[in-house]
Specification:
Layout: E1 4-7, H1 14-29, E2 34-38, H2 44-52, E3 59-60, E4 74-75, E5 79-80, H3 85-95, E6 99-103, E7 109-114, H4 115-124, E8 129-133, H5 134-140, E9 144-147, E10 152-159, H6 164-170, E11 177-181, H7 185-193, E12 198-202, H8 209-217, E13 221-225, H9 229-236, E14 254-255, H10 260-270, E15 274-278, E16 284-289, E17 300-304, E18 320-326, E19 340-343, H11 349-359, H12 366-379, H13 390-403, H14 407-419, H15 426-431, E20 434-438, E21 443-450, H16 454-458, H17 461-475, E22 479-486, E23 491-496, H18 501-507, E24 517-520, H19 525-539
Parallel strand pairs: 1-2, 1-17, 2-3, 5-6, 10-11, 11-12, 12-13, 14-15, 17-18, 18-19, 21-22
Antiparallel strand pairs: 4-16, 6-7, 8-10, 9-13, 15-16, 20-21, 22-23, 23-24
Helix pairs in contact: 1-2, 1-11, 1-12, 2-12, 2-14, 11-12, 12-13, 12-14, 18-19
Length: about 550
Amino acid sequence: MRTTYVFGHKKPDTDSVCAAISYAYLKNKLGLKAEPRVLGPINKETKYALDYFNVEEPKYLNDVKVQIKDMEYLKDTYITSKASIEETFNKLQELSVTGLPLVDKNKKLIGYINVKEIAKAIIKGELYDLNTSYDNILKVLDGKEILRFNDEISGKIIAAAYKSKTFVERVKLTSDDILIVADRKYIIDYAIDCKVKLLIIVGTNEFPDELLEKARKNNVNVILTHLSTFLTVNKMKLCNYIDTININTKPIKFTSSDYRDDFINCANKYGHTNYPIVDNDNNCVGMLRLIDQNNYSKRNVILVDHNQLVQSVDGLEEASVLEIVDHHNLGTIGTTVPISFRSMPVGCTCTLIYQIFKENNVEIPKDIAGLMLSAILSDTLLLKSPTTTSTDVETSLKLAAIADVDIEEYGMAMLKAGSSISGMSVDEIVEQDFKSFKLDNDNIGIGQVMTMDFAEIKENINEYIAYLDELCKKNNYRLALLFVTDVVKNGSYVIYNTGAEEIVKASYNILEITEGAYIPNMVSRKKQMYPLLAEFLNNN
């Protein structure tokens, strides 16, 4: 069973992280192999909740793009450099491919061989040179081993075409020669005297007994073949090692973790039809054909606490979205098939997940209950946010009983842990919970940070404005805002990019607007900050 990844949005808050963990736990209980993931670093508040209930932080998920390992490439498809030309050609035909990765004895990729170079070697290559192994000659000639003194065979190929006496008189054999001869004892005896490298006796399965001992004494390798002289001579070239012909020693290659779209771009650029696949140690694991580019498996994912494409994982369009569980307004994520989409106007995703636990009669363990409670208290600001519903309150009470914590005491401790900005840089503070939104004609960004000490931010407010300006330029935002929310005062201070003053003033009905202006009762990005801004921009 393939793993399904469950994750929240790119700027993980307590709800997105705890929802991913809780829902992955539930799906596993229901028989689906699921793992929670995060799309970025967790904040201090979330870390407090995980540590308090002794739950491991989910692993990071970079993207869900289709990788080579998700594609149907030919596994363990390659040829060793010491295979014969014939063996290589037969494998090419068997696989119906035009080339093969070439590997050494340790399966390290050392090159790539194709049909074109094989044909060139057969047609234009040296006729008389042989560099191969005894075993390759046996296989190609369908031979019979008589005497073997060398596993490696190299030398000049000679065929005994003259009459016996003429051959002996005209041809001076040496220990570097490979002689092809029929059952002509006179020439065979002469060749043994000359201590040739290899005798290939054609058209027979018998070697003269009276010459066997002499051949053994002179260390002459002997092979018999039932093939004719003509066929044997023609096949000798095919005995050579495949690496004796011209090979591409620097082929374009991919690893199993490379992306499919990079492969397609490369294939379109260079026009090759086959590409070696290697691991991180350059061990060849197979070959990917261009015709296999559409044979792949998508990653299975479940989205929680978001349904905006811009907020989700990179490559989501290449994944199979199985479910979405969310409590936000409908976003831009589309699917090609119907899916389970659970959405309700409640204060937290984990409130929905609690209901799904109950619908499926799955018991909620203490640590999972604690995380779900943490998410609700975080998203509803201790059940004081305008997003809070009676369902959130009721769910919190039940989860608190399971987790054995006091809602007010635990919730305040968690929020205090998350509100500390000591030691954080301006960009870390702005982006720790920053979300992008796409309207009809505009892109906007809204960040929210919880702290009970706005004075610390106000001291460096110009740096925050400059960073929001930078975000607008980088992401083509019409405007970018940072709301600094004080849970105790139940309101937020707003900082905005240069030039956004009139939009902020009109959107939130502020008579006197300045950077860092305090807006009472402004605590919810979902129900207050974003909707008011979106309404103004859509109408103006």
